[in-house]
Amino acid sequence: MNKTNDLLSKEKVVQSVVIADTFTDEFIPISNDIPHALLSMLNKPLIDYTLEFLSLGGIEEVFLFCSNRSELIKQHIDKCIAKGEGWSLTMKVHIIVSESCQSFGDCLRDLDAKGLLRSDFVLLEPGVLSNVPLLTLLEKHRDIMKLDKYATMTIVLQESGVGHRGRGSEDLVLAADSQNRILFYNKSTKNRSKKIEFPLEMFLENPSLSILHNVRDTRIAICSASVLPLFSDNFDFQTKDDLIRGLLMDEEILEGTIYAHVLRGNQFGGAVASWGTYRSLSQELMQKWIHPLNQPRQKNRILKNNTVIGACSKVSNTAKLSSSVLGLNLLIGNNVIVEDSFVFSDVKLEDNVIIKRSIIGPGCIIKTDCTLTGCVLGQDTVLEKSTCIENGLLQSSTPDNESFEKLSNKAYKLLEDDDSNKSHRLFVSDDEEDDDEEGFSESEDELSYTQSPVPDDTKLFFTEVIDSLTRGFDDNLVCENLILEINSSRYAYNVTLKEVNFNVVRAILLISLREPIGVQYFSHLSRLLSYFAPVLKNYLRNESAMLDSLQAIEDVVSSGENIKEKWVIAVLQHMYNKDYLAEEVILDWFRNLENSGDLYKRVKPFADWLEEAEEASSDEDDDEGSD
């Protein structure tokens, strides 16, 4: 029997533990009424994505541990089983309830006391979305255990560029040896620590080390059977990070080692741990980065301007919606503006409402002329006419043990102090800086190591693109593979599609200027453009992308590169003949060029030719019409 069949045998049921609750106030006031597992993402509960991922990954038995509003989760799971959801056909889900648990560690101690887990298992923190093949990871962990009897856990990390939204507010730095065994682990809130000190002996004792900062924690871990007893024996372990730090500090006493596995390419893992990561994962899901997990098409329709809206919703023709996710059964009035926001189901937005960078919980009513910016509204909140709020947390009932301001009978605004309830501000704006930065006063010497500028993600993306394309051309690789590499880099550095189009064309054009010795230049240019035809065809799909490519040509001409006299015309002619560029797009772009500029003079002969051809075609049509 091979390894996969052995994993699927009855003697070794593949088990997973899913902790349903975050035990934080990150999602207040939404979490006052809705358990984290049922938080809607693209109009589908988070737990549905998690269970679908586990089922596709080969898991046969799941222990779903709940401590908050477990009755709602039970009802949802029962409903899914009755409907015959795909995961229910291949996987058993057991709901474990313990309302006394106050932390992640308490949940694992409770599970250890119940004796439900028989061997290695997959451990998920709340809100995980992934497409990782779990059986493969389990096998790798078991291979490690054969070589290291103390191997306790393999944490799964996602390659993620610095500044990527999916990293949330956490910075993770770790060091691992050549076998991926973790020797140093530091997870902190951004801007809390200005420098990190590594133990010198770590470098002296290990001839090869990898220091990783371009990763994020997916909240997925492959665990040995010893994990639960370690939590039971150490009551100060409240989180997974506590376990990792404890094992690194007292490795010889606790007899446990931790390993890392980094996901790359099209493998994806992440967890909803804050509104920032909620926003990021929603976008990844919309863009199909987590394939085969997909949004529920039967409940959603895609609108222009990167907006999703749920079924049975009524939207005025005068409403302006952009970069938002809207729920089921909405009623949206005249002249409503919704930008970069999440509006849950059964919400009513009356006329002239403006919502920007906000989260509107289910059942809310926002009356005429209200304006909300950077707000989170709990379930069933009602805002009266002409209410304007910025950066506020609101709920429908009187808050317990909180400072608040009453706005209406069903709207209470939580009053924030300097240290609490700032989690939602991670969602407010990409440009907003962390206020805590002002609290530091280190000397210039202490901060000298940070004085170099932070690398621009777009520049790093361009560097990877030009490296991939150069290697592909030199080695005659299949262009489809190069497209996958480019898309992977796009995800890693979180660049926009416009930046992708511009930088891919720019990279190809710059490569074309590297004339090989002994080869005629324009022959080399034609061969190179023909080779990259699948890449150009993949990215130049509409007028916007065509304009991006023309701007790339403009950038190369202005860069000071050594350009042949007829280079611009040769490139334009080739891309026009291959239908990568439309005639009207080229002419519109040309008309906006500066008349006295060098590029205008270079392009003019080609533009004149296009206009003459257009006039000739128009005359022929007129002649045919007169006949």
UniProtKB/TrEMBL annotation:
Transmembrane portions of the chain: none
Pfam families, per the entry: LbH_EIF2B (PF25084), W2 (PF02020)
Subcellular location: Cytoplasm, Cytosol
Entry keyword set: Cytoplasm, Initiation factor, Protein biosynthesis
Any one Gene Ontology molecular-function term assigned to this protein's record: translation initiation factor binding
Any one cellular-component term (Gene Ontology): eukaryotic translation initiation factor 2B complex
InterPro entries in the record: ARM-type_fold (IPR016024), eIF-2B_epsilon_N (IPR035543), eIF2B_epsilon (IPR051956), LbH_EIF2B3/5 (IPR056764), Nucleotide-diphossugar_trans (IPR029044), Trimer_LpxA-like_sf (IPR011004), W2_domain (IPR003307), W2_eIF2B_epsilon (IPR044123)
Keyword Cytoplasm: yes
Chief location: cytoplasm
Extent of Acidic residues compositional bias: 429-447
Signal peptide (UniProt feature, chain positions): none
Region spans: Disordered: 425-452
Domain (W2): residue spans on this chain: 455-620
Family: Belongs to the eIF-2B gamma/epsilon subunits family.
Subunit relationships: Component of the translation initiation factor 2B (eIF2B) complex which is a heterodecamer of two sets of five different subunits: alpha, beta, gamma, delta and epsilon. Subunits alpha, beta and delta comprise a regulatory subcomplex and subunits epsilon and gamma comprise a catalytic subcomplex. Within the complex, the hexameric regulatory complex resides at the center, with the two heterodimeric catalytic subcomplexes bound on opposite sides.
Protein name stated in the entry: Translation initiation factor eIF2B subunit epsilon
